[in-house]
Design a protein that fits this description.
0% of the residues lie in helices and 53% in strands. It has no helices and eleven strands. The strands form two sheets. Strands 2, 4, 5, 6, 9, 10 and 11 form a seven-stranded mixed beta sheet that branches.
Length: 113
Amino acid sequence: VQLQASGGGLVQAGGSLRLSCSVSRSMFGITTLGWYRQAPGKQRELVATFNSGGSPTYGDSVKGRFTISRDNIKNTVYLQMNSLKPEDTAVYYCNVFYYGVYWGQGTQVTVSS
């Protein structure tokens, strides 16, 4: 499984971005997929993911601001990020669990104050 993330960039605080992650195979049958992020000097952390039951789970710091969604026809998972804060600055990685763990290459999100 190959993952291609896109949509990162530079945005001012309070702004919005939408990340996309294209999955190289059909997403039917893939239940666990989502987004993580890693800021400089920090550990990788959960941003948002669909769990094995199909429900979205969010990291505490993004609840109410970020929304994860998926399009099984386009084989793409999205992360809509609103009300961005400078502390959201990080490299964002998409992640899939399908008979193994797969990571995309990451896309940089920078939020200026």
